[in-house]
Specification:
By secondary structure, the chain is an all-alpha fold. Helix content is about 75%, strand content about 0%. It is built from 5 helices and no strands. The protein is elongated.
């Protein structure tokens, strides 16, 4: 029940934001770079060095490569903060994950 409600809240927040307010600044770009590329690759290297292979390794990499979750937006709304940066981070991260998840797996497979 929690997931559908959170998706409704996030969808409502997205619907109320004008595209001109959807700005991606330097801190959002850095967050996207770290979250979508660096963290999954570091996870892959650490887990491989610990001897993890196969499906468990792929699952760990996939979990780390997934986009920023909706909890960021929900916590921002709950604390009455500015929701535009959180929505920009979540939306952009989701779109970029279409490219970064395969890229992370491609790069991590080079090291196995």
């Amino acid at each position: 029940m929690n997931t559908p409600v959170s998706m409704l809240v996030i969808g409502n927040s997205l619907a109320n934001i004008a595209l001109k307010n959807f700005k991606i600044n330097r801190s959002i770009l850095m967050s996207l770079f770290l979250r979508n590329l660096i963290y999954p690759l570091v996870t892959a290297l650490v887990m491989q060095s610990l001897g993890l292979t196969g499906n468990p390794l792929s699952t760990m990499i996939l979990m780390m490569a997934c986009p920023v979750g909706g909890m960021v937006v929900l916590f921002t709304l709950q604390s009455r903060g500015k929701q535009e940066p959180a929505l920009a981070l979540m939306g952009t991260s989701t779109l970029l994950s279409l490219f970064t998840i395969p890229a992370v797996f491609l790069i991590s497979n080079l090291f196995t």
